[in-house]
Each structure stands twice: as structure tokens, then as C-alpha cells.
Design goal:
heterodimer, A: alpha/beta, Rossmann fold, 4-stranded antiparallel β-sheet, 8 helices, about 20% strand, globular, B: about 475 residues, Beta-Lactamase, about 55% helix
């Protein structure tokens, strides 16, 4: 059970989020805007924050910035389609993930689980990953799909291991570029896309409609091995 | 001209009087030495030249020489001279008188020019400051004529500006100003000033007003007392003031448009948020209820309808944004593969039961467009293909680089769109008879067309090689 803070100016959204999260066994507090949320965060401790982006007085972006000054508590931001260009700004400011309204409750709970697990990673990085018909051995650098060995280039392997560190997470192009090539490398998004496309051809059943390595339009990628 | 010759005659008479008075005074003082008398006479010559300038100066010098000979050089009261030394003295006197007179007249003349220039300069400075303080055309033209009349020292001023057609019309003038339209238009057409003596005294001058390299109109000054150069300076200043005013008003208009567009765009974002929030709430509430009571046909139907409603809201918002003029494309050079990928990722769910194939060029092909808008347009093409072709059939998305353009296509294996309807389906709310039973608002393709055209591209509906419809958008290649 985790303590979750929900900030949204719409009473309806606060109610449905509370119902969904409480059904999943969490404890929920709500706030009507960023200001009230910050007040609650000062007095109580939380494991997770879900906030709307557009709120009167103090919005979601301000809340993310304020929280990141002192804490690394995971934050999920709810946006609508017209706020596309804000997503990268949110992630750069320290938000961990976003969901576009109207969101599916199942998806929201899955993201919540993934984010909570990532912040409590138990005993270090596992040495072996398996999902669907794919297996990855970290020690031997061996990747198998359907029992057959898959040969990855060193760059493809680096991208895959970066993804494996944060299952379910969204990666901005910049975050992934610096995780694979380092912060000083001057590698373009186009180059990254070529490597990701090649990785998809090796791991995905239908590379045109990838299931594991999804495109987050204009933001980056999401690695979602659970589905 | 009349007053100038009158003043000249006045100068000669005054010089005559001054020299005569000096001689008379000297004769009343019998003990004066001849040399002293000569010096005092030279003083009279100097004064005449200073006060009345060149002509009267020379006249005074000659008159003083004759008087000196007649009244002071023996034998008195004759023009004859006995002593040859006195001849020399007289010549020296004449020469001194002429030189003094000339110098005095020249310096006086120069001083007057300098004063006039200083006055013109001060007037121009004042005028330019006054022009700079006016920010609207009305206030500028409203008092420009009075200011120009003061600066130019003239009787009447009029400003004529081009009236859109060929002619000029008076936009501002001092009261009762008489303007000869033909002369003003001649100055305007020839870009050179026309001047003539005025019935009001001074000069009448017609000058072109130039704004940058263009002609803007004509400036008329009647009864001008200052120089033509000064008038030209004023016309130039007026041109600059008009040009500045034009820029200021353009900048102001741009600022106003920007503010109103920003406001509209903020309002639209708020509206989108307000429309979607209840749908989002309903959908989440429904799913929460399903989690407790289990999924049923009825709950699935409700969920599907909510999803369709979301899509309708998105389409309507897109139309409102396109109509409000706030959907300004933010162009950047972007790879076509990225656009295709984004579009499939966003609209991919509607393609769930189709077989999707991609045909992308091996090397990166880029276009300069707003990537989100073009991906959205392509998405409408994908959505349309998915709706009007049977489940399980193939939908092909391709990018082809041509000589001057880049073409993005969506081809399906559905029934296709009959030739006569291909233009029509790109219009709003047009749905073909065979689309009964297929969800849709008839907005998707119209939105796609607006978005493509906004980004400088073309859209076309054709036949696909699979017998279905072909959705094609093309953009100029530009320079990568």
C-alpha cells in the first residue's frame, strides 16, 4: 500500500482517481491545485503524486518544479491533446511520466505500479530478464527470441539495457541519447531512430506496430515489456 | 521683387542722407583738421555699407570722395585740386572708402546668411522633435501644417498625399490655403520641386514628399520667406515622419494581432480541457464500475461511445482552431519517417485489425513543415483507410521522393472513392452514401486538407493499386 497525492481542479476527476486507486489498495489524499498540494506535501509524506497539468493558480508544471527542489518522489502528470508541446518540458522539469486525458484506468494503475516499483527497486539490478518470448542475460550479453539467439550490435544492446533499467518508463530523445552515448556526444535523433528501428526489427513481431518499444510522438520512446 | 527694389532705393537715399549730414556737421566745425574730416567721412561710408550693404556702400564711398574734394580740399567749393599731394590723398581716400564699404557689406551679408541658417537649423530641429512626438497619422497631419508654416516662415502650407489611385488629395492645409493641383501633381510625378514668385510675397514652392524610394505626396508652401533648401529639408523630414508613422502603426497592428491570437489560443486550450474533462471522468468512472461489477456488453458500448465522443471533440476543436487562425504552423526540417512513425503511433489503434505495411526510402528524406500538423493530417488519412477497407486487408503507408516534392501516401484495399466525389470528400461534412453505418463526422479529410495547405502542401484523393482509395499529400522538397 502506498500513499498517493492527487491534484486536480476537477472534482469528478479527483473522485474517480480516488475510487480507482483505493480499489487498488492505496491511500489517497486530494488537492484542488498545486498550491494546496505543496501544503499537503509539507505536512505529510507521500509515495507518489498524480497531478493535472492545467489548474488555476498553480499548475502541474509549477508543482513538478517545486517538488523536484527537495524530493525525488515519482510524479505522473495528466495532460490533454492540445498540450503536446508541454510534455518534453514536463519531463525535463523532472516529471516521471504523463498520461493523456481521457485515460484508461487500467493503464493508469499499470503506470502507477511501474513507477512505484522503480523507486523501490529491491535488491539491485536483476541479471536476467524475460517477457513474452524474449530473454536477456546481462552477464553473457545474450538475447534470445523464441529460443533463437538474436545478434544485437553494441549500440542496440546499450539501448536495450538502458530500457531494461526502467521498465515502463518514458524516455525523451535526449535522455536516451545521453544514457547510450553520454551527455557530450553529438548524436542526432535521426541516428537514434535508425538504431531503435533496427532493434525493433530484431525483437518485435510487427516492427511497424511495435509492442515493446513504442514511439511516444515528439517526445521519445516508451519501453513496456509487460503487455 | 517689387519690395526688394524699393528697399534698394531706400538704401541709396539713406546713404546719400547720411553722407550729406556728415558733411554738413563737419562744415559746422571749422577748426577740424582735414585728416579728421576724412576719417569721419570714412566712418559714414562704413555705416552705409553695413546698414544697406553693397550698392549703397559704393555709392556712399563715391559721394564721400566727391564731397571731401569739394568741401575740404583747397581750392574749396571746386572739384579742382592744386596740390598734387592732395590728389594722392583723394585716391587713397576713395580706395579706402571702397574697400571699407565692400568689407563691411560682405561681412554683414555673411552674418545675415549665418543667422538665417542658424534659424533654419533651429526650426528643423524643432520640427523633427515635434514630428517624433506624434505617433498617429491623425495627430501628425493635424498640426504638421502649422508647424511647417512657422518653420518655413510662409503664408500658406498644404500637404497632399497619394490617394490610392493616380491622383493626390489634400489631407491637411492651413486655413484658406490656395493649392494649384496641377503643379503639385507635376512635382509629385517628376520627383523635383517647382518654385515661382508668389503673389503673397516671397516664393510659392511645390515639393515632392519621398518616403524611402517611393513617392508619398507633395508639400506646398506659399509666400515662402526662407530658402528653397530649407523647404526641401522640411519635405524630407515630413517624408521621414510619415514613414516612421507607417512603421509604428504596422508594429502596433502586429502586436495587437499577436495578443489576440495568444488570447484565442489560450481560450481554445481551456475549452479543449473543459470539454474533455467530463468525458475523461465518465470513462474512468465507467472503468471503476466495471472493475467492481464486471465488464458487460452495455459497459463496452458505453466505453466505445465515449471514445467516439472524444474523437469528435478533438475534430471539432481542430476545426475551431483552424478557423480561428491560431493553428499557425511551427515549421522545422523533419524526417518523413518520423512523421509516419508518430502518425501510426497516435492513430495506430484504429488500424488494429488491418495489415499495415510501410515503404520508406532507405535514406532520410526531410521536409520543412510543422511535424505535428502533418502527422495529424496523415493520421486522418490512416483513419479513413481503416474505416473504409475490410478488416484484415492491407493498408500501405509510403514515402516517395520525387524531383521537386516529397509525397506521403496511404493506400487501402477498400471500395475506393468514385472519381466525381474525390474533390468533394475533402470538404467539410461531406460523407458519401456508401459510408452509412461507418462512424465519422465528415470532418477528418477536410481537416487534413486545411493542415496540409497550411504547411504549403497539396492533398489528393486517387486510386490505389489495390483497387481501394489513395490518400496522397505532397510537399515541396526545398533545400535540406
Amino acid at each position: 500500500m502506498s500513499r498517493i497525492l492527487v491534484a486536480d481542479d476537477e472534482a469528478g476527476i479527483r473522485t474517480v482517481l480516488r475510487d480507482a486507486l483505493e480499489q487498488a489498495g492505496h491511500e489517497v489524499e486530494t488537492a484542488v491545485d498545486g498550491e494546496e498540494a505543496i501544503g499537503l506535501l509539507e505536512r505529510q509524506s507521500f509515495d507518489f503524486i498524480i497531478t493535472d497539468l492545467a489548474m488555476p493558480n498553480s499548475d502541474g508544471l509549477e508543482l513538478v518544479k517545486a517538488v523536484r527542489e527537495s524530493s525525488s518522489i515519482p510524479i505522473l502528470v495528466l495532460t490533454v491533446r492540445q498540450e503536446e508541446r508541454q510534455k518534453v518540458r514536463l519531463l525535463d522539469a523532472g516529471a516521471d511520466d504523463y498520461m493523456t486525458k481521457p485515460f484508461g484506468v487500467g493503464e493508469l494503475l499499470a503506470r502507477t505500479r511501474a513507477l512505484l516499483r522503480r523507486t523501490n527497486p529491491g535488491a539491485g539490478q536483476p541479471a536476467h530478464f524475460q517477457w513474452a518470448d524474449i530473454e536477456v542475460e546481462i552477464e553473457t550479453r545474450r538475447v534470445r527470441r523464441g529460443g533463437h539467439e538474436v545478434h544485437l550490435t553494441p549500440t542496440e544492446y546499450l539501448i536495450l539495457t538502458a530500457f531494461l533499467k526502467k521498465p515502463g518508463a518514458v524516455w525523451t530523445h535526449r535522455q536516451l541519447l545521453s544514457a547510450v552515448w553520454g551527455t557530450s556526444a553529438e548524436v542526432s535523433n535521426d541516428t537514434l531512430r535508425v538504431h531503435v528501428a533496427s532493434l525493433r526489427r530484431k525483437l518485435e513481431a510487427d516492427p511497424n506496430r511495435p509492442r515493446w518499444i513504442r514511439t511516444e510522438p515528439w517526445v521519445g520512446y516508451r519501453f513496456s515489456p509487460e503487455e | 521683387m517689387a519690395d526688394r527694389s524699393a528697399s534698394r532705393w531706400l538704401g541709396y537715399s539713406a546713404a546719400l542722407l547720411l553722407v550729406s549730414a556728415t558733411v554738413g556737421t563737419l562744415k559746422l566745425l571749422p577748426h577740424l583738421a582735414d585728416a579728421t574730416a576724412a576719417l569721419i567721412l570714412l566712418l559714414a561710408v562704413f555705416l552705409s555699407a553695413w546698414l544697406w550693404e553693397s550698392g549703397p556702400g559704393v555709392f556712399a564711398a563715391l559721394l564721400a570722395t566727391l564731397s571731401f574734394n569739394f568741401f575740404f580740399i583747397p581750392p574749396l567749393h571746386t572739384f579742382t585740386i592744386d596740390d598734387p599731394r592732395n590728389i594722392v590723398a583723394l585716391i587713397v581716400f576713395l580706395a579706402s572708402g571702397l574697400v571699407i564699404g565692400r568689407l563691411s557689406a560682405v561681412s554683414r551679408h555673411r552674418l545675415r546668411l549665418v543667422e538665417a541658417e542658424r534659424r533654419d537649423f533651429a526650426a528643423l530641429t524643432q520640427l523633427s522633435q515635434a514630428f517624433l512626438s506624434d505617433t498617429t497619422r491623425e495627430s501628425l497631419l493635424g498640426i504638421a501644417c502649422d508647424r511647417l508654416r512657422q518653420a518655413l516662415v510662409c503664408e500658406e502650407v498644404a500637404i497632399l498625399l497619394a490617394d490610392g489611385g493616380d491622383g493626390l488629395s489634400v489631407v491637411a492645409a492651413t486655413p484658406r490655403a490656395q493649392v494649384e493641383q496641377e503643379r503639385a501633381e507635376a512635382a509629385y510625378r517628376r520627383r523635383s520641386s517647382v518654385a515661382s514668385p508668389s503673389e503673397l510675397g516671397g516664393t510659392d514652392i511645390y515639393l515632392p514628399i519621398l518616403v524611402g524610394l517611393e513617392r508619398a505626396g507633395a508639400l506646398v508652401a506659399r509666400g515662402l520667406r526662407t530658402s528653397e533648401r530649407m523647404a526641401e529639408g522640411c519635405a524630407m523630414l515630413l517624408g521621414l515622419a510619415l514613414e516612421r508613422e507607417r512603421f509604428v502603426s504596422r508594429a502596433r497592428a502586429a502586436e495587437e494581432t499577436k495578443t489576440s491570437e495568444e488570447m484565442k489560443s489560450t481560450l481554445l486550450a481551456a475549452l479543449a480541457h473543459d470539454l474533455k474533462t467530463p468525458v475523461a471522468t465518465a470513462r474512468a468512472a465507467l472503468e471503476n464500475w466495471e472493475a467492481v461489477a464486471g465488464e458487460s456488453d452495455k459497459s463496452r458500448l458505453a466505453r466505445e461511445q465515449l471514445e467516439a465522443l472524444t474523437r469528435r471533440i478533438e475534430e471539432l476543436m481542430e476545426v475551431v482552431r483552424l478557423d480561428s487562425g491560431t493553428a499557425l504552423p511551427r515549421r522545422e526540417r523533419v524526417s518523413c519517417s518520423e512523421i509516419v512513425e508518430a502518425s501510426i503511433s497516435r492513430f495506430g489503434e484504429s488500424l488494429g485489425s488491418h495489415n499495415l505495411s510501410l515503404e520508406l526510402p532507405t535514406r532520410e528524406v526531410t521536409i520543412e513543415v510543422d511535424p505535428m500538423q502533418v502527422a495529424e493530417a496523415l493520421g486522418h488519412g490512416l483513419e479513413n483507410a481503416a474505416r473504409y477497407s475490410p478488416a484484415g486487408s492491407e493498408i500501405q503507408v509510403s514515402v516517395e521522393e520525387q524531383k521537386d516534392s516529397v509525397v506521403l501516401r496511404v493506400a487501402d484495399a477498400g471500395r475506393g472513392i468514385p472519381l466525381p466525389d474525390r474533390e468533394r470528400v475533402l470538404e467539410r461534412f461531406v460523407r458519401l452514401p456508401n459510408s452509412a453505418g461507418v462512424p465519422g463526422s465528415g470532418l477528418g479529410l477536410a481537416i487534413a486538407r486545411s493542415l496540409v495547405e497550411l504547411n504549403g502542401g497539396r492533398i489528393r484523393i486517387g486510386d490505389s493499386s489495390r483497387g481501394g482509395a489513395l490518400f496522397e499529400i505532397a510537399f515541396p522538397r526545398g533545400n535540406p
